[in-house]
Specification:
By secondary structure, this protein is mainly β. It has a five-stranded antiparallel sheet. The chain has a five-stranded mixed sheet with strand order 4-5-6-7-12, with no helix packed on it. A hairpin with a 5-residue loop joins strand 8 and strand 9. The chain is globular, with a radius of gyration of 23 Å.
Length: 451
């Protein structure tokens, strides 16, 4: 076999792309095997009730009745519950009677011109949603109406992360232009609209196939106020800045970069206070504790590190090893736990007081991206490469899977999740590389009751 005439860099990029395609097909293949096992199990149940599925092919959607009127009713119920499309196979056969109250589509947020990497909800009034996109912009949205309120256009590269100040109307964005920006915003919420009459069970898992890539429903942010100048520009990194977060109190921020370091800055002066080194490969995420001066950084080196700034004279670091592939994110819970997600298709729950081994391991069928944990109920939301979003409790029990159908859900990889909790129900926001963010209303009491 003769040597390739392609330049080495181009050949390397092609090999990487083909590797990603191979992994996606592998995920689909594994899902298909699971489908076949569930279909075989369903066939056995039907046979036990005196029925067979015609041809053993669920895409035909026809049930053959062999017995009495009661069996015919069961057949009709199964056809209604376990719907099959001619183009796609339903990949969940779990009947969820009454589960329509669990997950309700709140709003879709469309207007970015490229994939959305990250999203966050403000911690001050007015409560708005922020999204960070590969189109070099960050957008602020009205949660209730889905209207874009403001655009930040100060970066010269992909905006990879957005986090809001704990008490002031300020945002921190991290970018591929090797900088992080702190900028102020002022928004006025529009009048609320009646909620849409759209709901679905959390385990409705049909795939989306009717909408083409790039097709946008609804209005984009055509004429919205635009902020182009940052209050502060943090420039100390030598590579892509992939994430950032505010330390408790909001007087310092931490940023994580592909230069294998995390930087701690003073907000008021933009001064670099500490450079946190030790990771062997590019960083993927950083997160701060809600009430203590603790920072966690994750990396492609399969580890995440806990940095302790509670004692000004001692800056200790602990290394957590337990994953076998890139740790895509690690986040604090309100208690003494850290939850980490990885490309190795696992999520692990750790006790800060004992870092030797995880207390819970959740195994999934697809790489896990930027996770989030609800503060009140401590529910983990997992966004996946295979477009799924799953909810688990801290002990690893699966609670639900968000709808993914022709009517709703993401059409591409889901990149990030973020919670906004209020009273008994709460909102979960998801974003993906299909250029949209989606808000879901999650009925937590009903969800836990189903458990």
């Amino acid at each position: 076999m003769e040597d390739s005439k392609l330049p080495l860099a181009l050949r390397s990029n092609l090999l990487d792309l083909f590797g990603q395609i191979e992994r996606e097909f592998e995920n689909l293949y594994i899902e298909n095997l699971e489908l076949r096992r569930e279909i075989d199990s369903l066939n056995e149940r039907l046979t036990g009730d005196g029925q067979t599925v015609e041809g053993g092919d669920p895409t035909k959607g026809a049930l053959k009745t062999k017995a009495s009127h009661s069996t015919s009713q069961l057949s009709q119920k199964l056809k209604t519950t376990y719907k099959a499309s001619t183009s796609k196979i339903v990949s969940s056969f779990k009947a969820t009677t009454g589960s329509r109250a669990l997950c309700q589509l709140l709003k879709e947020y469309m207007g970015h011109r490229d994939g959305i990497w990250d999203l966050s909800v403000t911690r001050t009034q007015p409560v708005v949603l922020g999204t960070a996109s590969a189109d070099h912009s960050a957008l602020l949205w009205s949660i209730e109406t889905g209207k874009c309120l403001l655009r930040y256009a100060g970066h010269a590269g992909s905006v990879n992360s957005i986090k809001f100040h704990p008490t002031e109307q300020m945002a921190l964005t991290a970018s591929g232009d090797q900088t992080a920006h702190i900028w102020r915003y002022m928004v006025q919420l529009p009048a609320p609209q009646p909620p849409p009459d759209v709901s679905a069970p959390c385990d409705d898992d049909q795939d989306s196939s009717d909408r083409e890539e790039g097709e946008v429903d609804g209005e984009g942010p055509c004429e919205v106020p635009t902020v182009r100048v940052a209050t502060a520009t943090l420039k100390s990194h030598q590579g892509v800045v992939i994430a950032g977060d505010w330390l408790v109190g909001g007087r310092q921020v931490v940023t994580a970069s592909w230069d294998r370091a995390a930087n701690l800055y003073e907000v008021e002066t933009s001064e670099l206070v500490h450079t946190l080194t030790g990771h062997d490969q590019e960083l993927t995420h950083c997160c701060t504790h809600p009430t203590q001066r603790l920072v966690v950084t994750s990396s492609r080196d399969t580890t995440f590190r806990l940095w302790d700034f509670r004692d000004p004279s001692i800056h200790s670091v602990n290394v957590f090893q337990g994953h076998t592939d890139t740790v895509t994110s690690a986040v604090f819970t309100v208690g003494d736990n850290v939850v980490s997600g990885s490309d190795d298709r696992t999520v692990k729950v750790w006790d800060l007081k004992n870092m030797r081994s995880p207390i819970t391991t959740i195994r999934t069928d697809s790489a896990v991206n930027r996770i989030s944990v609800s503060a009140n109920q401590r529910i983990i939301a997992l966004p996946h490469d295979n477009r799924q979003v799953r909810l688990f409790d801290m002990s690893g029990v699966r609670l639900a899977r968000l709808p993914r159908s022709n009517r709703m859900g993401h059409r591409r990889m889901v990149c990030c999740t973020a919670w906004n909790e209020e009273n008994q129900s709460c909102n979960l926001f998801t974003c993906g590389f299909d250029r949209q963010a989606i808000g879901w209303n999650i009925n937590i009491p009903a969800l836990l009751q189903e458990k």
